[in-house]
Design a protein that fits this description.
The protein has helices at about 15-25, 40, 55-65, 65-70, 105-120, 170-175, 250-260, 265, 270-280, 305, 315-330, 335-365, 375-390, 395-400, 405-425, 435-445, 445-455, and strands at about 5-10, 30, 50-55, 75, 80-85, 90-95, 100-105, 125, 130-135, 140-145, 150-155, 160, 180-195, 210-215, 220-225, 230-240, 280-290, 295, 300. The protein is α/β, with parallel strands linked by helices and about 450 residues long.
């Protein structure tokens, strides 16, 4: 196997995992990261400190022998715990099978595990505090700067792979390239992170094995558990309007807002007002671009190629799947980078677009539909069908979170199934009249769905 020098810009989750995949193939890998080493100085990023890892991400980690260690540091979440405005709660399971769950893990904890693993490879070198300023595609070099503003230099290799996130300097340098398409769409909502501390008598103050949601139609609060007994809460709220971040201007307005809409959560967040004004308001955006590769010398991967909003918990999982796809393409094309990068791009672009669209749709579901009677009826029908006919039926959530079915196939098949179930369930006066055998027959007889099932196989 030929050994090439590969340069990776970014030592976040995607860049570090990719470095491990490439090192296992025998390549010399140099990674440049703009932040200091988080294992020594802590996490200094601006994104959520919690992640939800599911089957796609776990499958990628299994291929490099890290899944077991990662899951030891994660907490299983078996469903959505819905908090009504009246204070009552109920669980919407992700699956009828209790062994199917997603896992909450800290971003820093996961990244540190990957960095430690990367350090064990002699053919991986990681350079921290190194800023990528731009990329010159004519000379095939990335222009860098060290911690000292006068320390400027250029790096190159057989291939440069941009894993430098949604604001990628490498990708932004491609705007001067002819026929480079790019779109950036911001949501009207932003987010703010808060903390439910661990309890004094019991470690977790609320159910630890669930993703908690306080859905309030146009906005919501969610909470993910941490190993130390705390919960990381995220408020998703519009920038403007009523209510919005614009109307929460002081301690009193924040306190009144939470007491009105999230009274049970309010009682659990003792430092609410201080955290609200000390933590930044984050933005939510979707990034799509094309092409992702250039002349067998450059590739975009992860958020640099396809940033998605966090409402399906698939951003990191999708990035890890990118790493697997590139590794498989290199294997198939015997490390011919030109052919492998084209194959990687062709396979992943359509699927990245699909999960980006599903993530936006899931925001509406999480904040609004989970309290809608029609949605709950259809979701109950889906769980019944998944339990009775696991070989014939798979819901959208199941396909996205608990399989490696391509995102595009999952999206197309799910939309068709949901349409059929919605129509059928609307004819029922009571879910006790739901006939699973008839429902699965309707789905199997649908010609479009049959074609999608064949595509899945």
């Amino acid at each position: 196997m030929k050994s090439d020098k590969i340069v990776i810009i970014g030592a976040g989750l995607g860049g570090t995992l990719l470095a491990i995949f490439l090192a296992r193939r025998g390549h010399e890998v140099e990674v440049y990261e703009r932040r200091p080493d988080m294992r020594k100085y802590g996490y200094t990023g601006g994104r959520s400190i919690n992640l939800a890892i599911s089957t796609r991400g776990i499958s990628a980690l299994e291929k490099v022998g890290l899944a077991e260690k990662v899951l030891e540091n994660a907490i299983p979440m078996r469903g959505r715990m819905i908090h009504d405005e009246n204070g009552s709660t109920y669980l919407l399971p992700y699956s009828p099978r209790l062994d199917k769950c997603i896992y909450s893990i800290s971003r820093q904890g996961l990244n540190s595990i990957l960095l430690d693993a990367a350090d064990s490879y002699p053919n991986i070198q990681i350079h921290f505090n190194q800023f990528c300023q731009s990329y010159n595609f004519r000379r095939h070099v990335a222009f860098m700067r060290g911690a000292d503003v006068y320390d400027e230099y250029a790096v190159s290799g057989k291939v440069i792979i941009a894993c430098d996130g949604a604001t990628s300097a490498i990708r932004n340098s491609l705007f001067s390239m002819e026929r480079f398409n790019y779109s950036q769409t911001f949501e009207d909502h932003g987010y703010k992170e808060l903390t439910i501390p661990a309890g004094k008598e019991t470690l977790f103050q609320i159910e630890p094995y669930a993703l908690h949601i306080w859905p309030r139609k146009s906005f919501m609060l969610i909470a993910l558990p941490n190993k130390e007994g705390t919960f990381t809460c995220t408020l998703f709220l519009a920038y403007e309007g009523e209510p919005s971040f614009a109307t929460l201007k002081d301690y009193d307005s924040v306190r009144t807002f939470f007491q009105k809409y999230f009274p049970d959560a309010y009682e659990l967040i003792p430092n609410l007002e201080e955290e609200f004004f000390s933590h930044p308001t984050g933005s939510l955006k979707t990034v799509k671009c094309y092409p992702w590769v250039y002349e067998g010398q450059l590739a975009l991967l992860g958020d640099a190629a396809h940033a998605v909003v966090p409402f399906y918990g698939q951003g990191m999982n999708c990035t890890f799947e990118d790493c697997v796809a590139l590794d498989q393409a290199l294997e198939e094309h015997q490390d011919d980078w030109n052919k492998a990068l084209q194959a990687y791009q062709e396979k992943r672009k359509v699927n990245a677009d699909a999960i980006a669209d599903m993530a936006v749709e899931n925001f509406i579901e999480m904040r609004d539909s989970v309290t809608d009677e029609r949605f709950l009826r259809r979701r109950k029908a889906e769980l019944i069908l998944e339990e009775m006919y696991p070989d014939k039926f798979s819901s959208r959530y199941n396909m996205v979170s608990f399989t490696t079915v391509p995102y595009a196939t999952a999206l197309a098949r799910a939309r068709r199934q949901e349409q059929i179930l919605e129509t059928y369930c609307s004819t029922l006066k009571d879910m006790q009249d739901f006939d699973p055998t008839y429902a699965i027959t309707l789905i199997e007889e649908d010609s479009i769905n049959r074609k999608l099932s064949i595509a899945q196989a």
